[in-house]
Amino acid sequence: MKVCIVGLGLIGGSYAKGLTKKGYEVYGVDKNLKTIEYAKENGMIVDGYLDASCCLNFVDLVVICLYPNDVIPFIKENLNHFKNDQVITDVCGVKTSICYEATSIIKNAYFIGSHPMAGREKVGVMYADDNIFKGTNFLMCPIEGTNEVATGVVKQMAVDLGFGHIHEISPEFHDNMIAYTSQLTHAIAVSLVNSNANSEVVKFIGDSYRDLTRIAMINEGLWSQLFIENKDALIGQIDSFINEIEIVKNAISSGNIDLLNEKFISSKKKREVM
């Protein structure tokens, strides 16, 4: 199968690496010539292009690995270049705003939104590593009436990349759950790091702080878009979190050990099954 990866960053490069290993004929598109050269020199792609129109018309599968705000503009700019019956997917962490519009404007091909639940705190093709997908979750958001053969192509790609669990869900359910499991956790990590400006804090850091704040090493350009694109769901989750931490705060203030123990036991039981 011939595949075009649009955007050879960490995720796009990792897709290219993994799919090439599985025998796919992979082509790359990126705005940076040095990125394309790196990917080609390191065997990730057969060839690469600065202009997507150079390869969109002959590949079977297109994987758009761009920031959320760039996906729909890219599709609109290339509507005349997509091949008939081509399968198109993306990797964005928000789905509702992308899936419905992409499906409505693409007439001759099939769009199936997807989200690989994997990543690193580093950015760029030089950090590409297909091992980040092994055993992780892959979320697919085909809307009602999506071609089943096209959905199968994306699912098989996920299998070939080594994802451990593949789930088909609605775009709306995806965005609501991701607001909690991904976006809220990043918001908490960022807020925790920024909540204390004492320069001596580094002397008191242990594993718990490191574990909780690892994701504060954030790609600000990407995550600011993810937060804003999913703001309603994320704000709802932030409000729920504030309510829960207020309960803990009040229990501490009133010396309510029983309530604290109840919260600790509850969280421990929930975390054990995750």
Tell me about this structure.
With 274 residues, the chain is of the alpha/beta class. It is 50% helix and 14% strand. It has helices spanning 10-21, 33-41, 68-77, 96-105, 148-161, 171-194, 207-213, 220-229, 231-254, 257-272, and strands at 2-6, 25-29, 47-49, 61-64, 87-90, 110-116, 137-141, 165-168. Strands 3-2-1-4-5-6-7-8 form an eight-stranded mixed sheet, sandwiched between helices. Helix 3 (68-77) runs parallel beside helix 4. The chain is globular, with a radius of gyration of 21 Å. 36% of the residues are buried.
Task: Provide a concise account of the structure shown.
The protein is α/β, with parallel strands linked by helices. Helix content is 50%, strand content 14%.
- Helical fraction equals 40-55%
And the CATH topology of the largest domain? Rossmann fold
> What name goes with the CATH superfamily of the largest domain?
NAD(P)-binding Rossmann-like Domain
Strand order of the largest sheet: 3-2-1-4-5-6-7-8
In CATH, what is the class of the largest domain? Alpha Beta
Question: Architecture of the largest domain in CATH?
Answer: 3-Layer(aba) Sandwich
Count helical runs: 10
Structural class: alpha/beta
Q: Strand percentage, roughly?
A: 5-15%
